[in-house]
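2024-03-11 09:14:02 DEBUG pipeline.ingest accepted 1 chain
2024-03-11 09:14:02 DEBUG pipeline.ingest length=161
2024-03-11 09:14:03 DEBUG pipeline.predict start
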Amino acid sequence: MDFFIRKMTVEDIPQVQKVAKTSWNHTYDGIIPKDIQENFLKSAYNDEMMKRRIDQSFIYVSEVDGYIVGFANFSPVKEDGQMELGAIFLLPEYQGKGIGSALLHEGIKHAKDVSQVFINVEKDNKIGKAFYDAKGFKVLSEFEEDFDDHLLNTVRMVLKA
C-alpha cells in the first residue's frame, strides 16, 4: 500500500477530526465510556483547538489515495531535548501497515536536537501499548488520572531518540 507523510494544514482539519473520532471510538471502546470520549473529542479536536495545535505544535498526516488515514501530534522540543508525542492515531483498517512507524519517524526526523520522546498511553490500550513497546519505548511510571470523572490507568513511556 502506498502512503505518504506530510505536515498538516488547516484544510486537513475535517479529515483529521474524523480519524481522531473513529480511532478513539475504536481504541477506547470498553475502556472509556462513550459520553466521556465524545466530550473529550469535542473539546480537544474542535476547529479552534486544531488550529492552535497546527500553530503551536507539529502535526503530520498520512495520506492514502488522497485521504488522510492517520496523524501524529508532537510538541516542540524543550531545551533539554525532550519532546512529547501527544497523539498518534490511525483508522483501524490502516493499523499494522507501517504508517504509524512512519509518522513517528517523521516527527523525530524533523525535530531539532531531540534526545527523548515521551508518551502517555492508557494501560488497557493494548494496540497502542504494543506499538510503543515494539518501537523501543520503555515504561517510566504508571499512575491513575482523573479523565472527566473517569479514572484511567496511565503508563508514561520514553524513547531515546
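2024-03-11 09:14:41 DEBUG pipeline.report DSSP finds five helices and seven strands in the chain.
2024-03-11 09:14:41 DEBUG pipeline.predict end
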